[in-house]
Design a protein that fits this description.
With 212 residues, the protein is mainly alpha-helical. The protein contains 5 helices and 4 strands. The strands form 2 sheets. The chain has a two-stranded antiparallel ribbon.
C-alpha cells in the first residue's frame, strides 16, 4: 500500500486526512507584561543668574533646604518665610529662588550672628553698615521680605514697583544697574565674592531639589 506523508493532501479530488501524530502545536507568545513604572526625575535646570524671572523651587522645598543646613530653625516660621518669598517675588517679577538664596547668605540660614538680629525682620542686611548702623527694622516678616524683594528689583529693573514701597533705601539704587547677581558684589555688599556666594547657595539648592 502506498504510504502518505503525515500532511493534509488532496489528490484527484480526494481529500486524504493524515495522522496528526508528530505535529507540534503552534506556540503562542505570552501576553506582554508592561515594564514596572519608574518615576521620572525632573531634569535639573541651571541655577539662575538673573534677578528677574520666575523661580522653580516650591515653598516646601525651599524650607526643607534651609532646615537641612540649620536644623535648629523654627519649622513653622521657615515655611511661612518661604511662602512670603514666593508671593512677594511673584508680585514684582523677581526670581524667588535667587532672593531666597540671598536671604540664606545674609542671615546665615537664619542663624544670624552679625550686625542684623532676628527681631529686625531684615532678611537681606538693608542698612547694616556698622555697629552704629546695624540695619533697618521692619514690623513683621512679610514686610521685611517685601523690602528685600523691592531692593532686588531696584537693582535688576527700571520697571515701577507693583506693591506699595516699604524699602527706605530703594531711592539710593540706580535702577536697572545689575540685572544679574554678578553685579551685586561691591554694590549691595563690599565683599568681592558676594555674587559667587549667592551662586554657590543656588547650586546647593538645585542639587538638593533635583539630585535627591
Amino acid at each position: 500500500m502506498k504510504k502518505y506523508s503525515p500532511v493534509l493532501a488532496a489528490a484527484c479530488g480526494v481529500v486524504i486526512f493524515a495522522s496528526c501524530a508528530g505535529i507540534q502545536p503552534q506556540r503562542t507568545r505570552p501576553p506582554s507584561v508592561p515594564p514596572e513604572t519608574v518615576p521620572v526625575k525632573p531634569e535639573r535646570p541651571l541655577p539662575p543668574d538673573e534677578i528677574m524671572g520666575k523661580g522653580k523651587v516650591s515653598g516646601e522645598k525651599l524650607a526643607a533646604f534651609l532646615l537641612e543646613t540649620n536644623s535648629g530653625a523654627d519649622v513653622d516660621f521657615t515655611g511661612s518665610l518661604a511662602a512670603f518669598y514666593i508671593d512677594e517675588a511673584a508680585a514684582e517679577g523677581v526670581n524667588h529662588d535667587t532672593a531666597f538664596a540671598q536671604m540664606c547668605l545674609e542671615t546665615g540660614f537664619l542663624r544670624y550672628g552679625g550686625l542684623v538680629t532676628a527681631d529686625k525682620n531684615n532678611f537681606c542686611g538693608l542698612g547694616a553698615i556698622g555697629p552704629e548702623q546695624p540695619g533697618l527694622t521692619f514690623p513683621d516678616p512679610q514686610t521685611g521680605v517685601r523690602a528685600h524683594i523691592q531692593h532686588l528689583k531696584a537693582y535688576a529693573s527700571q520697571s515701577p514697583l507693583n506693591n506699595e514701597l516699604v524699602d527706605p533705601r530703594y531711592r539710593y539704587v540706580k535702577l536697572g544697574s545689575s540685572p544679574t547677581i554678578h553685579g551685586l558684589a561691591g554694590t549691595w555688599a563690599a565683599d568681592k565674592l558676594y555674587s559667587e556666594k549667592i551662586a554657590a547657595i543656588l547650586e546647593r539648592l538645585y542639587d538638593f531639589v533635583y539630585d535627591e
